[in-house]
Amino acid sequence: MSARDYDLEPFWMPFTANRQFKAAPRIVVAAKDMHYTAEDGRKILDSSAGLWCVNAGHCREPIVRAIKQQAETLDFAPSFQMGHPGPFRLAQSIAQLAPADLDYVFFANSGSEAVDSALKIALAYHRARGEGQRTRLIGRERAYHGVGFGGMSVGGMTLNRKVFGAMLPGVDHLPHTHNLEQMAFSRGQPEWGAHLADELERIVALHDASNVAAVIVEPVQGSTGVIVPPKGYLEKLRAICDRHGIVLIFDEVITGFGRLGKAFAANYFGVIPDLISFAKGVTSATVPMGGVIARKHIYDAFMTGPEGIELFHGYTYSGHPLACAAGEATLALYHNEGLFENARTLSAHFEDGAHSLKGFPNVVDVRNLGLMAAIELAPRPGKPGARGYEALVRCFEAGIMIRTTGDILACSPPLIVSKSQVDEIFSKIGNVLKAIA
Ligand SMILES: Cc1ncc(COP(=O)(O)O)c(C=O)c1O
Question: Which of 10, 69, 265, 322 would suit a FRET pair with 171, their CA atoms being 20 to 30 Å apart?
């Protein structure tokens, strides 16, 4: 491959230790199906679907073709006060995949925008019904809901919150459900921990239910290291929200579009939220897109008020033609290739592969659900994250891309992954673990 013809310095990289990266960069220049190509020409097996998003695999021809055709036909059209067919068609397809009654789709351009939109819809829904005093939002520790002020406020990652001031007022957090003493090396949903949902009753009692607008959770917490909900936990949250008229939001930015072997985690768990935020897999990450799926009673509450703009919220690029074309082609590909089924069928083999790393040096937990798995390493004394980062670097050198959060290694491959590629992922990670102190 040719030498770099650009300077690394001016790009202020997100969520990256810029000085460390720029001193020893990892640059990819192309991708196809399950692999990236590094600038030195090496093939890198993508065990994290980019950032949990390339669910259909890289540079898939039907998606690329649809984007090209759309760019040549209608590059942009507003979705304010006029329309084009894309978002209407895509909304219908998404609603068909979502559980019954989740019938209405609002489009944004990222997971962060999707989450902020969902929180705003919940607040405005209560107001439309004459309960505008319901303003309190409840998130969860160790949650990641993006970087908008709404998502950050309900999120529970300290480093995402620490330097950005006071954020939204009126936010509480449920405890997270991760407890190594109780659930280390659980396969699938842990048996322990459903009682942690009862904390919601305590928070609601503190403020009085009449002041609480919404609860938002990732059905499986992704970015903080694949924290799988204990058996019965989500069901309890749903029941408590029902009892008190609270809107339940599932943030399915990672779990949506097949990650658990069903269209959404809501389908997988059989727990139906009032709103779902989505992004990533809807276009297999080819064009940025996010959005919110709403149940009928939510949409209807807006549509029965006075004539005029019912929801004063939207983005220039809501329903962007390229994103819609990519989304339609992606959903068709999921269907035509049976990719959600592939994820479902492979999940047992994937679970076995992940758990084969139990007993490897420094491994203190392995956990998984669907095609998501985490391998948690003990931190080096006084140096949290150092061991995880070394694992990431060495994996890349060994030809495999993983995702790390501190000392937790995460895998979430594209849904086209094969059995032998699953084996390759865990055997390469195993070799790396054996090589690092
Ligand atoms: C659950 C969840 N919500 C929201 C986001 C934010 O999405 P984006 O980075 O597209 O803004 C993410 C990103 O990883 C996520 O995992």
Answer: 265
- Say how far apart CA 259 and CA 370 lie, in whole Å: 6
Question: In a mutational test of the pocket of ligand 1, which residue from 253, 315, 412 has the highest number of ligand atoms less than 8 Å from its CB?
Answer: 253
- Residue 54 sits at the vertex; the CA angle it makes with 53 and 56, to the nearest 5 degrees, is 130
The tokens for 115 are: 């989450």
From CA 308, how far away is CA 297, in angstroms rounded?
A: 19
Please write the tens of the pLDDT for every residue from 304-324. Answer: 988 999 999 999 999 999 999
Q: What is the pLDDT of residues 371-404, one digit of tens each?
A: 999 999 999 999 999 999 999 999 999 999 999 9
Ligand 1 within 6 A of CB of 223: yes
Where does residue 241 rank: exposed (0-12), middle (13-18), buried (19+ CB within 10 A)? buried
Task: Give 285-288's long-range contacts (Cβ < 8 A, gap of 24+).
Answer: 285/49, 285/50, 285/51, 285/53, 285/54, 285/55, 286/63, 286/64, 286/67, 286/326, 286/330, 287/67, 287/320, 287/322, 287/323, 287/325, 287/326, 287/327, 288/109, 288/110, 288/323
- The answer to whether 297 touches 382, Cβ cutoff 8 Å, is no
- For 188-239, the pLDDT digits (tens) are 999 999 999 999 999 999 999 999 999 999 999 999 999 999 999 999 999 9
**What are 124-151's pLDDT values in tens digits?**
999 999 999 999 999 999 999 999 999 9
Q: Which domains does the chain have, with CATH numbers?
A: 18-60+337-435 (3.90.1150.10), 64-336 (3.40.640.10)
Express each pLDDT in 325-357 by its tens digit. 999 999 999 999 999 999 999 999 999 999 999
3-state secondary structure of 426: helix
Closest ligand 1 atom number to CA of residue 111: 7
22-40 mean pLDDT: 97
Of 13, 55, 109, 112, best ligand 1 pocket probe by most atoms within 8 Å of the beta carbon:
112
Residue-level pLDDT at 2: 56
